[in-house]
Please model this.
Amino acid sequence: MSPTKLGQLHEVLAGADRVVVAYSGGTDSALVAAVAARTLGDRALAVTAVSPSLPPGEAEQAAQVAALLGIRHRTVRTREAELPAYLANGTDRCYHCKSELYEVLGAVAADAGGAQVVSGANADDLGDFRPGLRAAAEHGVRHPLVEVGMTKPEVRLAARELGIPTWDKPASACLSSRIAFGVTISVEMLSKVGRAERVLKDLGFVQCRVRVHADLVRVEVEPADLQRLAEPEVRERVVESLKALGYRYVTLDLEGFRSGSMNPPDASS
Model:
């Protein structure tokens, strides 16, 4: 990554005067938060949205990392899981989720003296299936990483250079992404899949997904982890734990983890 891009990121955030960072705790938003803290000091605020869509443990980790970054941090509750359009789980689900998020963050920004809401979207996201970017545009949200042209690999490199502990953290999407489009979402479904993935993470599978297909779940882990997951003791524990949550069938996806595997066939993933 060119040092120029990191310098430009500082300039972009400095020009905003004061910002509210849509902060999930992932690598992208952590980099934006870190640079905002260094550039703006107390005029930067990181905000983490908490809802049934958030994987277990993410809010706590986000708070811990924010403290290390030296940025002010707070959590807010978002209520996308109460919106019929979100629960309908159409291909525009992410749009409704992000609309709710940016509506809430907009209110936080107004209370903070008219701060600019910024996100952690990076340049690579522009070529992905991201209906939420439309919601961001409608709410006037800026994407500093996009503005300076930083790709995901460049974000990770910059985060590592700045000593951000989550520079190599795997992506952690909204729990609703584990459920096939068109299947009505419920809070109970989100809770179950969150607990199912917690089982895998507690066993040391850092990058994993539990994809839900009615009473069958399809487990995705990194290809390098497939052999370990297939070991009798580990396999039996996973099967037993996921069946205890109410799933009838537990399958292993031999293709391994891949982002967006539930996206529509004609969408980028």
Remarks:
- The chain has two domains: 3-161, 175-252.
